[in-house]
Amino acid sequence: MVDPAVFPPQLTLSTKILLDFISELNLKNKTLLELGCGSGIISLFARKKGAHVTATDINDKALNNLREASKNNDLKVEVIHSDLFEKISERSFDFIIINPPYYPKDPKNIKEQAWFCGKDFVYFKQLFSQLPHFISEENKTFIILSEDCDLQRISEIAKENRISLNEVQRITKFGETNFIYSTNR
């Protein structure tokens, strides 16, 4: 069940691509953070694969839906209301998965925050300023981006924060190309 005020995973390629990608990862007894979980389908899938999952979002409706889905599917997921890493300090994860908003427009409401990163790429400026505290040689962070976004500007913001985006996978489906990147300092 996906509330109309929540990012609709069934309408986008990115969620399906991430599900396929993490299906190949060994998640058994690993810690995983889904940053901006939306419907939480990725978190639930990762938990089913044996990961200890923490899911965050700024949308209370999304988090309530995930809590319900977690309970109904008997899949324990830690659900936290957090703007990026705001409520996650002092923790580390084996994997961090991010399906970010990337269209450069200021969101008008909570639902639009799942799509729009702000005219000045505020989301990415905040993400890449906070992310260095959570990445290390021992963990993996994966972010999916589409050819529809300004890949060059997003990469520049990452570099400004001493983060490199390394292409792990390129997937073209239905005429759209998506990229999964890992991050390094």
Essential attributes:
Rossmann fold; alpha/beta
Model description:
This protein is an alpha/beta fold and 185 residues long. The protein has a single domain (18-184), classed as Vaccinia Virus protein VP39 (Rossmann fold). It has helices at residues 13-23, 41-48, 60-72, 122-130, 151-160; strands at 31-35, 52-57, 77-81, 95-98, 140-146, 164-173, 176-184. A seven-stranded mixed β-sheet has the order 3-2-1-4-5-7-6, with helices on both faces. A hairpin with a 2-residue loop joins strand 6 and strand 7 (176-184). Helix 1 (13-23) runs parallel beside helix 2 and helix 4 (122-130) runs parallel beside helix 5. The mean pLDDT is 92.
In short:
The chain is of the alpha/beta class and 185 residues long. The chain has helices spanning 13-23, 41-48, 60-72, 122-130, 151-160; strands spanning 31-35, 52-57, 77-81, 95-98, 140-146, 164-173, 176-184.
| CATH fold topology | Rossmann fold
CATH class: Alpha Beta
Flag low-confidence runs: none
- Spatial order of strands in the largest sheet: 3-2-1-4-5-7-6
Rounded Rg: 15 Å
Main sheet characteristics:
7 strands, mixed
Element pattern in H and E: HEHEHEEHEHEE
Proper CATH architecture: 3-Layer(aba) Sandwich
- Give the number of helices: 5
Helical residues, percent = 25-40%
Strand count = 7
* Terminus-to-terminus distance: 38 Å
CATH H-level homologous superfamily name: Vaccinia Virus protein VP39
* Structural classification: alpha/beta
